[in-house]
Inverse folding.
């Protein structure tokens, strides 16, 4: 059965999407079947692998589903009601062993209705279990929040990976997300693990970055990944080309660090 | 009557908080009475001026308000019902002409209930009008989203300032926020202006940054600010000291660029 990790942080711009895209691509290159599931209405992970956002409404129109009677907003929830679930909406990307479930228009509507009613959470979990039979690894990208969508993603994940940009506000943000995860572990998800804290955008010449790395390694020695992602413009450039870093500049420091992370996550020590 | 600008973008980490804090401080130094209003549950703008987040619940306990019968979550909404509104919760900071309305715990609850019911939006607008009589300039910081809280902020602002980090995903994000603003202008807020697009974290040696600047200046010549904020670690460091940049490294490039922005926003050409 495939593993499922959510990449989450309410702090914006810490490298959630960059990590989800490049780790999924790295896992694919290592020979495992990877699915990148984009739950962010911004659809950055979707464009990061060269795909585009679509609407369930247009997809459902093609299959003449009964959603049409119930109005546009419920197209996604309608899809959850169907037997085939999320599978029909998954695309094969041009990258080795990498599939993608693109972000979709209706996702911004979900945000408005806050956390999903329990009827759908159970359907969501059911369909995620189906996906685990088809993929070795599922990585979910989330919007920068602790609201409805990240809660949905965490409801069906084995673990959560928290990118921590090597700056002050991102470090401060840990004091918000960690209690939320503890709450989930104490209530609905006792088996939810913290996969790890991933230090990102590390610029070794900056004192601030070294201070943050020192603090995180001191206070969270067992949670922090050994791999530290350096600040490398190649990672930002690859996003603008719709390519994971390995297919844009495989010899860059950014590519090297995400390869290291892939090995650490897959457990090759 | 004071001007009210919301700093918004659903893209995370583009410099919303850094801009709200430093522009508010710059306006204060220029002699106008400025209020920094932190509507982000992350409370970064609050800590960026050395203050801390609090809960309405504890504040209301001190004044034994009747909210205690209705349960914790409604403490903020309760405050909106009171005659004095938001004024009692405003603090004078140690910085010249700069006041702050700190972020508060209950804000994360608001996010869960999506956009505020119209009963409270009208009370919110009423209390904002009161604040305009006390301050020359009100700057509102928002979480990275287009949901309930930014909508609340935009409902009572004269204009919206959109920071655009000089990278691909942030530029892509304009295609999401601009239609949302156009919708608001076509419906509830015909007088809502776009104060401007502010290019941030510009690293002149990077080709990607120069490409983004070129695109934004080409496609939005009348919206983009002349001032471009450079990437300057002093800005990130000042946040960790709870100081606006002028009180941390007044001679830095970051300070200089926010002074330039202050002059441009105040209309001194
Ligand atoms: N290690 C890195 N070095 C340089 N640039 C990076 C790095 N990681 C990410 N970036 C760039 O920084 C910006 C923010 O990263 P990204 O969009 O992945 O963060 P995010 O947490 O997904 O943001 P959001 O909160 O908006 O979802 C992007 O423009 C990305 O290309
Ligand atoms: N011009 C700049 N140069 C260098 N660092 C900057 C600059 N502007 C902001 N930063 C730093 O970049 C990070 C992101 O900025 P900031 O937190 O202001 O963005 P934001 O849009 O408010 O993020 P969020 O979406 O989480 O609210 C912070 O660590 C901040 O200190
Ligand atoms: Mg993202
Ligand atoms: Mg912010």
């Amino acid at each position: 059965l495939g593993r499922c990790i959510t990449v989450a942080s309410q702090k914006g711009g810490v490298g959630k999407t960059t990590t989800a895209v490049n780790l999924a691509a790295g896992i694919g290159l290592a020979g495992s079947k990877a699915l990148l599931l984009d739950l962010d209405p911004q659809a950055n992970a979707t464009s990061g692998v060269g795909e585009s956002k679509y609407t369930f409404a247009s997809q459902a129109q093609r299959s003449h589903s009964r959603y049409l009677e119930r109005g546009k907003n419920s197209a996604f929830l309608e899809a959850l009601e169907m037997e085939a679930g999320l599978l029909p909406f998954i695309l094969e990307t041009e990258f080795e062993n990498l599939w993608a479930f693109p972000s979709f228009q209706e996702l911004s509507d979900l945000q408005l209705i806050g956390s999903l009613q329990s009827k759908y959470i159970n359907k969501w979990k059911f369909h995620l279990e189906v996906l685990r039979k088809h993929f070795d690894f599922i990585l979910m990208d989330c919007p920068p929040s602790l609201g409805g969508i990240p809660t949905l993603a965490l409801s069906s994940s084995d673990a959560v990976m928290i990118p921590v940009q090597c700056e002050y506000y991102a470090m401060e943000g840990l004091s918000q997300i960690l209690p939320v995860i503890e709450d989930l572990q104490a209530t609905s998800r006792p088996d939810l693990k913290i996969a790890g804290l991933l230090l990102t955008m590390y610029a070794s010449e900056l004192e601030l970055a070294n201070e943050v790395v020192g603090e995180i390694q001191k206070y969270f020695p067992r949670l922090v990944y050994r791999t530290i992602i350096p600040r490398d413009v190649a990672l930002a450039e690859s996003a603008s080309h719709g390519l994971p870093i390995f297919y844009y500049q495989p010899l860059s420091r950014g590519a090297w660090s995400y390869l290291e992370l892939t090995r650490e996550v897959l457990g090759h020590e």
Observations:
- Residues A 12-18, 40, 42, 44, 144, 200-201, 229, 231-233, 235-236, 239, 254; B 11-13, 144, 167-169 surround adenosine-5'-triphosphate (ligand 1) (CB under 6 Å).
- The radius of gyration of chain A is 18 Å.
